């Protein structure tokens, strides 16, 4: 009996790898075989998940945070010229900053510096994970930094997104999460509308161009960036389909399972690929808006710490061994 354990991070508490290890320990304590396969959806943890499969080495360099202060973020670069950059590293909502965290002035300039740095170091394909930004600048900051840093030098760009929001809707949908009040949302929306018209291609009618406050749309319009589901890209790279085909069950996980989970997140992508293999969810909490989506899982288990995650793995494996398909209690 083999259980494929493919959790996302519990943001701010446990990395995807830590969750996978805890659940796997429980599976193995019940005599099952556990395959650890930490995942991400294009946000926090993407670099960690892709480092081994893509052969990335860490590159730490100078950049700027969303409000212009110096910072030293890290991205990944492989010997064959693939770079992986998390927008959250330099332009993230949790990026350290001592001053005011103004959502209107926050800029992606620092991420553009990383893109230009990767191109200077010989990257031929630059992958940017667009989750977790503090910005709604429509990518103007990043474009300015890329041009100031010598351009892409022939590199292609893929932006990984976990939303389908369009460019001019980015402030309305995500602005409040970044600290924008109603007036700021209106101002940012007007700015995005003007920027959309000024770009070489208008991203307004293209799905997923609103990721990271329009960063994805700006990269698509200015540099022809490919926009891809972060969840599907990552599952392809780590060989999920092959591993899932040989598994008796799959365990997914995230900090909160709710109505947002089905909107392009990694768990929805796993469910779409699982075929008839039962999928168990081990999560930090469950939202009231989950509704009938819960029926997609063989079971949903709330586990808020490593001990509870270990117990969830043990119970899932024990239930599979008894043939009930339900976690065994006790």
UniProtKB/TrEMBL annotation:
Which Pfam families is this protein grouped with?
Answer: Gly_kinase (PF02595)
Q: Name one GO biological process term.
A: organic acid phosphorylation
Query: What would you give as a GO molecular function for this chain, any one?
Result: glycerate kinase activity
Report which superkingdom the organism of origin falls in. Bacteria
User: What InterPro entries does the record tag this protein with?
Assistant: Glyc_kinase_flavodox-like_fold, Glycerate_kinase, Glycerate_kinase_RE-like, Glycerate_kinase_sf
Keyword check for Glycoprotein, yes or no: no
Q: Please indicate if the UniProt record lists Lipid metabolism as a keyword.
A: no
UniProtKB keywords = Kinase, Transferase
Family according to the record:
Belongs to the glycerate kinase type-1 family.
> Can you name this protein?
Glycerate kinase
């Amino acid at each position: 009996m083999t259980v494929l354990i493919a959790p996302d991070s519990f943001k701010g508490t446990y990395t995807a790898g830590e969750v996978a290890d805890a659940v796997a320990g429980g599976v193995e304590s019940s005599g099952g075989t556990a395959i650890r396969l930490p995942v991400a959806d294009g946000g926090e943890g993407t670099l960690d998940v892709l480092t081994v499969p893509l052969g990335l080495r860490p590159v730490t360099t100078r950049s700027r945070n969303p409000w212009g202060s110096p910072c030293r973020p890290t991205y990944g670069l492989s010997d064959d010229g693939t770079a992986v950059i998390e927008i959250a590293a330099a332009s993230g909502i949790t990026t350290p900053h001592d001053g005011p965290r103004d959502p209107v002035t926050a800029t992606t300039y620092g991420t553009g510096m990383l893109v230009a740095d990767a191109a200077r170091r010989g990257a031929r394909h630059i992958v940017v994970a667009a989750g977790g930004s503090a910005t709604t600048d429509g990518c103007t900051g990043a474009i300015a930094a890329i041009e100031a840093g010598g351009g892409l030098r022939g590199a292609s760009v893929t932006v990984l997104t976990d939303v389908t929001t369009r460019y001019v809707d980015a402030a309305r949908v995500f602005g409040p999460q970044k600290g924008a009040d109603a007036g700021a949302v209106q101002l940012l929306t007007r700015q995005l509308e003007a920027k959309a018209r000024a770009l070489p291609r208008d991203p307004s009618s293209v799905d997923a161009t609103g990721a990271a406050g329009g960063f994805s749309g700006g990269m698509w319009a200015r540099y022809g960036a490919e926009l891809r589901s972060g969840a599907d890209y990552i599952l392809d790279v780590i060989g999920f389909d092959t591993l899932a085909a040989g598994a008796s069950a799959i365990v997914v996980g995230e900090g909160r399972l709710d109505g947002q989970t089905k909107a392009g997140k990694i768990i929805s992508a796993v469910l779409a690929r699982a075929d008839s293999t039962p999928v168990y969810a081990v999560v930090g909490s469950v939202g009231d808006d989950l509704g009938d989506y819960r029926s997609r899982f063989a079971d949903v288990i709330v586990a808020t710490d490593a001990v509870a995650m270990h117990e969830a793995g043990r119970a899932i494996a024990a239930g599979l061994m008894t043939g009930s398909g339900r976690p065994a209690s006790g």
